Amino acid sequence: MALSHAIMTALLDEDLSGYDLTRKFETSLGFFWAASHQQIYQTLKKLDAEGAVSARAVAQDGRPDKIVYALTPRGHQLLDAWIREESRARPAKDDLFVKLYNVGHTDPAPIEAEIRARHAEHGRRLALYEKIRDRHYAQPRQLPDARKGIYLALSAGIRQERMFIDWCEEALALLATLPQADSEAATTVDADSSRRRTGPKRSG
Amino acid sequence: MALSHAIMTALLDEDLSGYDLTRKFETSLGFFWAASHQQIYQTLKKLDAEGAVSARAVAQDGRPDKIVYALTPRGHQLLDAWIREESRARPAKDDLFVKLYNVGHTDPAPIEAEIRARHAEHGRRLALYEKIRDRHYAQPRQLPDARKGIYLALSAGIRQERMFIDWCEEALALLATLPQADSEAATTVDADSSRRRTGPKRSG
DNA sequence: ACTCCGTATGCAACTCTTTGCATATCTCCT
DNA sequence: AGGAGATATGCAAAGAGTTGCATACGGAGT
Questions:
Q1: DSSP H helix total and E strand total for chain B
Q2: What are the C-alpha distances in Å from B175 to residues A31, A81, B93?
Q3: CA dist A22 → A68, A71, A121, A173, B78 (Å)
């Protein structure tokens, strides 16, 4: 499980509670590896059972108690071993590309709408990443070693967002050349054999 | 389940057996949504039970019999509904970015090695995608509508590979500025107090 | 008092995906 | 006859991730 390793990685610099980790996974590391709080709590228990992290209860004033986790030497070993071993890059699965294969068989409007939404979303993300980079990661070569890797992840994020934004623009331009479905019509799979007009049909 | 929809999408143009689909998911659609044969056979059964596809046995000559699946009108409806509804883009999870957060805390050599491997792999993929584009998708605006979406998915693949290759080069250049861990030193977890000097050490 | 919100942790059920194993037919080669 | 390899389909179990629900404390607002 790579989430285990993402959590251990997050614990490299500081001890954190499940709640802290949840917030960390909503930003920073979470840009590259999303996780829900349920998953995080479960995984922390598993890591604790394995001896990769150690838990200590912390009483708090004005808010509920919490359980803070620290990476153990054993956890560090596991992390190092993982870095050396694993390698498989699983292809990113994205619904949108599957949907694109449906163009010509269905109303393209919802797909265009989704691309427009993505365009906006990736624009926001790009702005966020660039802000972070400009504030904390300008001049990458001058960064302490421990920040260089994070800078590189951020740089990949920035490149990715830019690439996607450019692609959205290409896609919208090309999709604009399609005959628009008026109301519910559209599409069509031309003629005769086997699969005549399975698309949304207008006639009877 | 999006795999259901990917399978239904693959059945838009032609009826296919589980085996055919498996091969199709090793290329084409599979560039964007990977699936093993086990998963495909399971999902086909589920789709059949739901009435989204219909199965028919086909006796063959010179090879084992097969079961060929066709998309039903019901399946077409489900597919259209899915295209309209869903939207959530799950962030691509990639181990490599998690590993990068470990730079400065562990030997960077395996990470560099992985980036080099990715560089090569993405180079191969880029060449493959460009070959497909040049052969079958030159002049996107002249393509039949049903191929425009596929072209766009391919274009996204090409942009992605190029982006990643550029990033690998940036990453290798920056990682080259790190002090290299000599033999087995590195890493480690140093002793006593919580977390001083977790980086690879060279001095003594 | 009451409710909402942020902090903090958790269970249970389900879906999705991966991994390992198993089986069978047919062709081609040795 | 035997084995390799492509074709063709499947089960079972484990791992990973999602969804819905539940609980509890304390502060702030109505």
A1: 7, 3
A2: 21, 20, 22
A3: 13, 17, 22, 39, 35
**Minimum Cα–Cα distance from B104: chain A residue:** A146
A134-192 confidence digits (pLDDT tens): 999 999 999 999 999 999 999 999 999 999 999 999 999 999 999 876 544 444 444 33
Segment (H or E) for B16 = strand B16-17
Tens of pLDDT, residue by residue over A36-60, are: 999 999 999 999 999 999 999 998 8
**Protein-proximal positions, strand C, CB < 7 A:** 6-12, 15-21, 24-27
Contact B144 A102 (CB under 8 A): no
Q: Say whether B167 sits in a helix, a strand or coil.
A: helix
d(CA A7, CA A3): 6
- CA gap A63, A164 in Å, rounded: 42
User: Can you give the C-alpha Rg of chain B in angstroms?
Assistant: 24
